[in-house]
Amino acid sequence: MSSSPHIPHIAIIGGGFSGAALAWHLARDGGGPKRMTVFEPRPFLGAGLAYGAGDPQHRVNVPATRMSIDTSQPDDFINWIRGTGALADDPAATRPDGDVFPARAVFGRYVADRLAPLLHAGVLTHLRRRVTGVHRVPDGGWIVTDATGVSLPADIVVIATSHPAPQPPGVLRALDLHPGQHPILVTNPWQAGALDDIRHTDSVLVVGSGLSMADAIVSLTARGHTGRVTAISRRGQRSHGHATGAVKPVGDFISPPARTARHLLQRIRHELARHAGQPWQAVFDRIRTQAPDIWAALSVPERRRLIRHLRPFWDTHRFRIAPQADEVLRARERAGTLDVRAARVVAARVRHGQFALTLRHGSSPAWEACYDAIITTTGPAHGAIMHMQPYIGGLAAAGLVEVDATGLGLHVDALGRACVGGRHEGSLFVAGPLARGRFGELMGLPEVTHYAEKLAVIISTLAAARPGVSYPYQERATT
Question: Quick one: 311 exposed, middle or buried, by C-beta within 10 A (0-12, 13-18, 19+)?
Fold first, then answer.
C-alpha cells in the first residue's frame, strides 16, 4: 500500500455542462488537493446534449452576456467570444440591438476551453466511457464500473447525468416501422442525420411545442423544407420571445410566499395586471429569481399540482426562444406552413406510407389527420431515468437512490445528497437538473451554475474531512 498522503478522489458521472461546471468549481475551491474523474463518452467536456448540437441553426436562447461558467464573472463567455473571434463566420449571431445569440456549440467550446488547463495539469481526468455500475464498498467508498469492465475507486460520487431523451407517444411505439422508409418517426431530432429522410414537401407532425420543437422546425427549414408542419401539445402553446430592449424584473412572490398553486397563479395574474405597462417578461424574470423560495414554500401535493396545471405556461414564458428561431417560426406561421394546436395522439396506424392518426384535445371530438413524418420533442422523459441509466437503476435496487416525490428527478436533501426516505447518502451527490425536484428551477444555465458553485463548496468540505478509501487511487479491471 502506498504511504503517500491520500488525495480524495471525486468521480463525476456525466460531463455535460452540469458535470463540467462542478469540476471547474471544485478545482477552484480552496478546500485542499483533490483528484477528479469525469465519465463522459463525448469527446469534449461541457457540451452534453444541450451544447453539443452540431446544427449551427440551434442557438442559445438567452443573450451571451447572461451566460457564464462562473456567476462572479457574468461577462466571461462574451469576453471569450470577443477574444477568440468565435463568431467571425456567423454574423447572424449578433442582433441589431447588439445582443448576441451564438450557436449552442460555441458555448460548448467555451466550457471545454475553460476546462482544458485542468485536464493538462492532471487535476481532472476525462474518461470517455459510459458508467454501468456504482457500488458501495465496506469502508464507505465507492467503486465505479464502466462499459469496458474497468472499475475505479472513489471517495465521493456525483451523479451529473442528463435527463433521458424524449419518448414517443405510447400509441406509436407498437407500430411496425422501417428505418429510412416512410413514414418516418424521429425520436431524437438532435442526432446527426436524424432529419435526413424527411422530404422537402413532407407533412410533419411535431409532438411537443417548446424550444425543442423550434429547433426541429428551424433545422427543417434550413434544409429547404416547405411542407405543412403541425405542432401539438397539451396546451397548444409555443415558446415566447424576448422583450425588445432591457427589462428590469418587477413584482414580489415571497413576501409572504404562496402556499398553493392556485394562490401563486392569482399572485402572478395580479402582478401582470399591476405592471400592465411593462413587458410581461419583467414579471416572469422576477419569478425566476425567486423560484427556489417559491418552490420551497409549496407542499409536495401543491408542487405536483403546479407541475400538472401551471408548468406548461411557465415553460413557454420562462424558456424563451432565440430571436433568429422566432423569426423562422413566425415566417412559417404567416406562410401557413406551421400550425400550433392543443391536441394529443390517441390512435395511430400506418396506411399507404403515412401515419393515419386520431387526435383529440381534452373531451372535444376527435379528428383524423395523416402525416409523412413525426418528430418527438416532448421534453425529458423524467419517468424513465431508472431504466434508461442502468447504473442509477442499480443504485435504486441497492436502496441508495429513489425518484423524487414530484417525479422530476432524484430525491436529494438540501445539500444535494441522494436520499431514500429520510436517510441520505453522505458521499453520493446529484448535480444538475436531476436535483430539480428539491430545488425547483434547475433547467436554466444560471441556476445550474449557481447550484454547481454551492455543491462544489459542500463536496470540497466533505473531501477535506474524509480519511479516504483504504486503497490507492488506481484503475482495477473487474474479473
Answer: middle
How confident is the model over 297-338, as pLDDT tens digits? 999 999 999 988 888 888 888 788 999 999 999 999 999 999
Q: Identify which of 42, 24, 40 has the alpha carbon closest to the alpha carbon of residue 160.
A: 40
Q: Kindly report the backbone phi and psi dihedral angles of residue 202, in degrees, each rounded to the nearest multiple of 5, phi listed first.
A: -60, 145
Segment 31-67, tens digit of pLDDT: 667 889 999 999 999 887 767 667 888 899 889 998 9
How far, in Å, are 20, 27, 304, 471 from residue 152 at the CA level?
Answer: 19, 20, 38, 11
- Measured at the alpha carbon of residue 398, what is the angle toward residues 393 and 402, in degrees to the nearest 5? 55
* pLDDT at 471 (0 to 100): 36
Cis peptide before 117 (omega within 30 of 0): no
Q: What is the C-alpha separation between 64 and 144, in angstroms, rounded? A: 36
The three three-digit cell numbers of residue 467, written as one number? 480519511
DSSP secondary structure letter of residue 4:
S
> Which grid cell is 429?
451527490
CA distances from 392 to 63, 94, 380 (A): 35, 41, 16
The set of cell numbers assigned to 381 is 422523459
Across 287-304, average pLDDT: 91
- Cα–Cα distances in angstroms (integers) from residue 59 to residues 55, 62, 180, 450, 463, in the given order: 9, 9, 28, 22, 38
Global pTM reads 0.89
